Amino acid sequence: MKKALITGMYGQDGSYVAELLKAKGYEIRGIVHAPMSENSVRIRQELRDKGIVIETTDIPLTDYALLKEEIEAFRPDEIYHLAATHFSAEKADLVTESSLFVNNITATSNILDICYNYHKDARIVTAGSCLMYDATHTDEQSEKTPFASNTYYGIAKITENMLVRMFRDRGLYACTAILYNHESHRRAETFVTRKIVKNMVRIARGEQESFTLGSLDAMKDWGFAGDYARAMHLMLDQSVPKDYVLATGSLHSIGEFVEECAQQLQIPDWHRCVQVNDRILARKNSATLKGDSSLAARELGWKRTKGFAEIIAEMISEEK
Fold first, then answer.
1. Are 90 and 280 in contact (CB under 8 A)?
2. So what's the pLDDT on residue 100?
3. What pTM did the predictor assign?
4. Alpha-carbon span 289 to 268, nearest angstrom
5. What is the pLDDT of residue 94?
6. Nearest-10 crossing angle of helices 152-169, 97-118
7. Residue 300: φ, ψ to 5°
8. Domain residue limits, the chain
9. Is 55 strand, coil or helix?
10. pLDDT of the residue at 278
């Protein structure tokens, strides 16, 4: 039986990875943030309803000694480092950007250093972000596109990838999944996709009349989170560790997302339901973030299972 350690166990990505690995017979241990968010509690219950119960610990990833003790005791074959301090484009008041930067880099550095010195057999994938390219001035990005960012989160993820490459050069099986926007009903309500779906469902039920967004024009490369979880598992099943861009290569605006919701929920004249206030935006990207995942398709055999409309349909059907 293979063993996997998942950080961010009850986040969107961690939960899909756990679900996938459980079906493959893995023994799984998760690391969670304490106290758990309302969304994490909701995801944990959803997994339990499916018969998936994961043993977890709430040790801080910035505590080298405790993390070393955990990894040495469990000795996982695979580590999925998916925990990160971050926020949506419409919400930035949970943490300061400087602490976000330090916490994310420290956590990744600790995992890599511990495995290199005490558990070299582990295979590690870390979660990167399309924001690693948010200052590239390119229309599409691939693994060959040089990183450039003007956000704390993007710069932190670039630094984490530099650490991944350093330890990989030293012989550790370490790689970065450069994840473009990936969505599901397990998204927290602070993220714009879940915010839209939740509010549009309430409008369709007659429970409210309108809601506010920061933008309708921003373009996103949206995929299904479950597909990206499968890609990360495939990345750890290769003979040689390598970084991959995971994306759809298609762009849709936030306005298109709202319009698709309205069509599926049969809401007429959706523009009357949405107020726009760009003052609530915490982050405005100047780059067009569209990913080229042809390398993952070619080398991993990765194929996406859900398109834009199907992702929205899944989110609507699961909205309570």
1. yes
2. 86
3. 0.95
4. 31
5. 45
6. 10
7. -100, -15
8. 3-184+222-249+289-304
9. strand
10. 83
Asked whether the bond before 35 is cis by omega within 30 degrees of 0, the reply is yes
Phi, psi for residue 179 in degrees, rounded to 5: -90, 120
Regions in the chain scoring below 70 on pLDDT: 86-95, 281-286
Residue 90, CA distances (Å) to 27, 55, 99, 129 in order: 37, 33, 18, 17
Token couple for 235? 């990345």
Give the per-residue pLDDT at 87. 57
3-state secondary structure of 167: helix
Q: Tell me how long the chain is.
A: 320
Rounded-to-integer distance, Cα 209 and Cα 216, Å:
18
Q: Label residues 197-211 b or e (16+ Cβ within 10 Å = b).
A: bbbbbebbeeeeeeb
CATH of 3-184+222-249+289-304, one of 2.40.10.10, 3.90.190.20, 3.40.50.720, 3.40.50.2000: 3.40.50.720
Compute the distance between CA of residue 47 and CA of residue 3 in angstroms, rounded to an integer. Answer: 18
Look up residue 292 and give its two tokens: 């080229």
Do residues 79 and 177 make contact, with C-beta atoms less than 8 angstroms apart?
no
Q: Which residues contact 168 (CB under 8 A, 6 or more apart)?
A: 174, 175, 241
Using alpha carbons, select from 77, 93, 65 the residue that is nearest to residue 27.
77
Question: Please, are residues 225 and 12 in contact by the beta-carbon 8 Å criterion?
Answer: yes
**If we measure between CA atoms, which residue out of 223, 208, 219 comes closest to residue 315?**
223
Neighbours of 260 (CB within 10 A): 20
Q: What is the rounded CA–CA span in Å between residue 52 and residue 50?
A: 6
